[in-house]
Design a protein that fits this description.
Blueprint: E1 15-23, E2 31-35, E3 38-41, E4 45-54, H1 64-67, E5 69-73, H2 84-103, E6 107-117, H3 122-126, E7 138-139, E8 146-147, H4 151-165, E9 174-183, E10 193-196, E11 206-213, E12 235-239, E13 247-249, E14 257-265, E15 276-278, E16 291-301
Parallel strand pairs: 2-11, 4-13, 6-7
Antiparallel strand pairs: 1-4, 2-3, 5-14, 6-16, 8-12, 9-14, 9-16, 10-13, 10-15, 11-12
């Protein structure tokens, strides 16, 4: 594990108090169930009091391969992110071009998008929609420290995406599974995204969290009943609390601010993943409901 140097400039950052939810110590069946407008995890979780540093005044300090995340400017042509047709038609192409520029990748392919809001989704959660697909909808903010892929999921996602999108390509030597995140509600946001310096985490505090996309949540013992082949299914990485974890956020993000962070980088010589989650920011007055859009994808280096 690489250890983050205590850069003097980082120690000047304003600190916001936060509660970050982590997987508790112990052994659990860890699964994440998602449905229309709602999500839930199995296993025991606990909220830990931490500080989240405000990186906005230091925005030029951060780099993708050093911290696992970077903030940049990008003006979008999308006037209304709730216009699903417009987002489907052009936003992912914008993201592909932007990520290629920010990373130097030879090829970039996106895998869909999701809107997240801290607003009330209770009526949406009560809808029973057959065949729910976890893409292109609206979900609540992330609830715990996580990375959306474990290593097997990231490796398979890269191979699948490259084969589907670039079937005649020469192949790739490196890939980065990423998320490109943008808030389009005015600041300060009440539940902003926090990102953890990837140099401050290690494998010893991790567990895999298998993804189940469902029309209705199972109940009782069905939540954790054995599923054949679960270790080969799509799964995220979740984390247990460690004091060394160093969290950051960017206060008052505007619509032309974008945050790029890594789910997985096949090159482990650099910072190769970035835990993240939402947190309730009580440090700034007049906070407003957060609305944001995330786009997932893979950048390839030939």
């Amino acid at each position: 594990m690489a250890t983050a140097a205590l850069d003097d400039i980082e120690e000047t950052a304003r600190q916001a108090p936060a509660l970050i939810r982590y997987l508790d110590e112990g052994e659990f069946v860890t699964r994440r169930y998602v449905s229309q407008g709602a999500e839930m995890n199995t296993g025991d979780y606990r909220d830990y009091a931490v500080v989240v540093r405000d990186g906005m005044p230091l925005r030029d300090h951060f780099s993708l391969d050093m911290h696992g995340f970077v903030i940049a400017k990008h003006e979008t042509a999308i006037a209304d992110f709730h216009d699903k047709g417009a987002v489907d038609a052009s936003y992912q192409r914008e993201v592909e071009a932007l990520v290629a520029r920010l990373t130097g990748a030879d090829k970039v392919s996106t895998q869909g998008w999701m809107i997240r809001t801290s607003g009330d989704l209770s009526s949406r959660a009560q809808e029973k929609v057959a065949g729910y697909v976890h893409s292109g909808g609206i979900q609540p903010p992330a609830g715990e420290a996580h990375v959306d892929y474990n290593e097997l999921t990231g490796k398979r996602a890269a191979a699948r995406v490259y084969g589907q999108t670039f079937p005649d390509g020469p192949g790739y030597k490196r890939y980065i599974c990423f998320s490109l995140w943008r808030t389009f509600s005015p600041g300060p946001q009440d539940w902003p995204l926090a990102v953890c310096d990837g140099r401050t985490v290690s494998d010893e505090e991790t567990a895999s969290n298998t993804l189940f996309v469902v029309d209705e949540f199972p109940v009782g013992d069905a939540l954790t009943a054995p599923v054949e082949g679960e270790d080969q299914m799509i799964a995220a990485t979740i984390f247990r609390h460690r004091e060394r974890h160093r969290w950051w956020y960017f206060s008052n993000m505007a619509a032309d601010d974008v945050l790029l962070f890594k789910f997985q980088d096949s090159d482990h010589a650099v910072t190769w993943r970035c835990p993240h989650t939402a947190f309730h920011d009580t440090s700034l007055p007049d906070a407003k409901i957060r609305e944001s859009i995330e786009v997932r994808g893979v950048a390839f280096f030939e």
